[in-house]
Amino acid sequence: MSRTPSVLVVGGGTAGNSFAVLARRAGMDVDLVEVKEDWNAYGSGITLQGNALRVLREVGVWDRVAEQGASTDGVSIVTPAGDVVFTQQDVRTGGDDLPATVGMQRPALQRILIDAVRASGTRVRLGTTVEKLTQDGSGVDVVFTDGTSGRYDLVVAADGIGSRTRAAIGVTERPEPTGMAIWRAPAPRPAGVERTHLAYGGTAFIAGFCPTGEDTVYAYLVEANRDRASIDPATYADEMRALAAGYGGHWTQIRESLTDPSQINYTWFDRHLVEGDWHRGRVVLVGDAAHACPPTIAQGAAMSLEDVSVLVELLRTHDVWDDALLRRYRDRRIERVRTVVDASVQIGRWQLDGVRDADVPGLMGRTMNILKELP
To answer: pLDDT for 19-34, tens place per residue?
Structure first.
């Protein structure tokens, strides 16, 4: 382009924030709108595998992530009683110079990315999102919910699994429940916990926790999904403690800390993958707006971060932003994302179906070895 291209990012989560920073570094003029007044700076924990860390290093925040998170290189498989059966080393999907995994509190990651967005010169408006989109051959006219308007060369929809932008541009695929749900909460880190612990079976399908800092872990329990409307949020702590009662070892201390229902999140697992184009005209989907999967192999954030890295690379290296370029972005991503989505869902399906000889380690190993390759 003969002038500075303008981009609107809709959604200020991990994908949207990272896109904004990378796009500004590539010389684009960037606006970001986030519907939540608090910039979505809450949550329990997040597991970032090496291929996610590789993009966060590209964004320029790796040092702060390493400082505030907990780096690990393995997973201990344990019995429901808490006895270690074996410990396996994780594949370093980001390369040998990065840890296999970093666990951290999600608000900490969000604050790091918020600081990076602010420092990048991106114009940010909180409590605001898109009301209306109107496209022509050269750009997108946008009316915002605060009554203002603007025109952009490209709109990047990073507004999550329930993306309103996706629906507004006529993409019909919607997330579908897989039959599982997860309880998540931050908790104090028990003494002696050096890596993720996973128990398969017991009162839940999966009981696990991941270090997220020197003094904290992110604890989670996976069960068959229930009618969310039937569970009073005021009882979330009681519900999670009851489900955790079937687990010993470090879970004893973790369970005792689960007293504040406002710190506990209950979410269904969904499968989501837009099979057709990930764009309509000059509006393009990234991250959970285009695809999402259960966290059974902890690749949701990594897939979103890879999306924005690939998209910015293509936008930066091509003067013409057209259907062919945006389709090239989707074509570079679709099979890699499909591999992750299908593997994540398959692990849950084996558990729901009670398949006792399922090759979970084999499937995870094959998938992670694929992810070692650059996207």
So the answer is: 999 999 999 999 999 9
